[in-house]
Write a structure and sequence with these properties.
The chain is 19% helix and 33% strand. It is α+β, with helices and mostly antiparallel strands. Among the domains are: 62 residues, Type Iii Antifreeze Protein Isoform Hplc 12 (Alpha-Beta Complex), CATH 3.90.1210.10; 51 residues, Roll (SH3 type barrels), CATH 2.30.30. The strands form two sheets. Strands 1, 2, 3, 4 and 5 form a five-stranded antiparallel sheet that branches.
C-alpha cells in the first residue's frame, strides 16, 4: 500500500511538471506568434502606398526565445533598411523590461517594368522600339527601375547596355529633381484626403523615379520624385 501511494504521488508530480512545461512552451509559442503578427502588420503599414500587388513573408522566429512579456512593443526599420525585397524589422520592447530583436522578412512586389529589347549603345537616344515590358517581381530589381515607358523614351544612354537587362534611371543623362539630404515634402493622397509632411531625402532622384525619404518623426517612406522638391505617395 505504501509503495502504491509513493508511486501514485510520483506519477502525479511528473504529470504536473509536464503540464507546467507544456504551458510554458505554449506561452512562448504564443509570444512568437504575436511578434510575427506585429512584424507582418508593420510591413503592411509600410506598404500602404503601393498600387501593385505584394506578398509579405515573415521568416520563422526561433521559438526557443525566452523574452519577457512586453506591454510596450514597437516595430521599426533599422537605419538605411529597405521596405521591399529582403528586409529586416526591429522589435523594441520598452516595458516592463527592455529588449530588442531583429526579424527577417521578405516583401515581394509584382508590377510592370521595362528591360532593353536590343543591345544599346552609349549616346543612343531611346525609342519605344528599344523597350520591352515585363511583368514580374519588381522588389528584386535595382533601385530606380523604369516602370513607365515615358521615363525612358527620348533619354540618352550614358554607356552600352545589353539586351534583356532592366533599365534604370541612372543609365540615362538626366538632371535630378531631388538631391540626397535635401529637405522635401512628402505628399500622401487618396480618395478624399491629402496630407503633407516634412522629410529628408535619402538619395537623389530624377522626375518620376521611386525614392526613399525619412520623415522628421523617423519613419521611412517611399514615393515618386516630382520637380519642386516633393515626393508623391499614392
Amino acid at each position: 500500500m505504501k509503495n502504491w501511494l509513493i508511486s501514485t504521488f510520483l506519477t502525479l508530480t511528473l504529470l504536473g511538471v509536464s503540464a507546467i512545461a507544456n504551458g510554458q512552451n505554449q506561452s512562448i509559442q504564443e509570444d512568437v506568434q504575436r511578434l510575427t503578427i506585429e512584424v507582418e502588420n508593420f510591413l503592411k503599414e509600410q506598404s500602404q502606398g503601393l498600387k501593385d500587388p505584394y506578398v509579405i513573408e515573415v521568416k520563422p522566429i526561433d521559438p526557443r526565445l525566452k523574452l519577457t512579456p512586453c506591454s510596450d512593443l514597437k516595430s521599426f526599420l533599422p537605419a538605411g533598411a529597405k521596405v521591399w525585397g529582403k528586409v529586416t524589422v526591429g522589435l523594441r520592447c520598452s516595458a516592463p523590461k527592455g529588449w530588442v530583436i531583429y526579424v527577417a522578412a521578405q516583401v515581394r512586389v509584382y508590377a510592370e517594368y521595362f528591360v532593353s529589347k536590343n543591345p544599346l549603345n552609349a549616346g543612343q537616344t531611346l525609342s519605344e522600339e528599344d523597350l520591352l515590358k515585363i511583368r514580374g517581381e519588381i522588389s528584386n530589381q535595382p533601385m530606380g527601375t523604369i516602370t513607365d515607358k515615358q521615363q525612358a523614351i527620348g533619354k540618352t544612354m550614358l554607356a552600352t547596355h545589353p539586351a534583356g537587362v532592366t533599365l534604370r534611371h541612372d543609365l540615362f543623362k538626366s538632371v535630378p529633381v531631388i538631391l540626397q539630404g535635401q529637405s522635401i515634402k512628402v505628399i500622401s493622397q487618396g480618395p478624399g484626403f491629402r496630407v503633407s509632411n516634412d522629410a529628408i531625402a535619402i538619395q537623389q532622384a530624377i522626375e518620376g523615379q521611386l525614392i526613399r525619404a525619412k520623415t522628421l518623426s523617423g519613419q521611412f517612406v517611399s514615393g515618386i520624385a516630382r520637380s519642386g522638391g516633393f515626393i508623391e505617395v499614392q
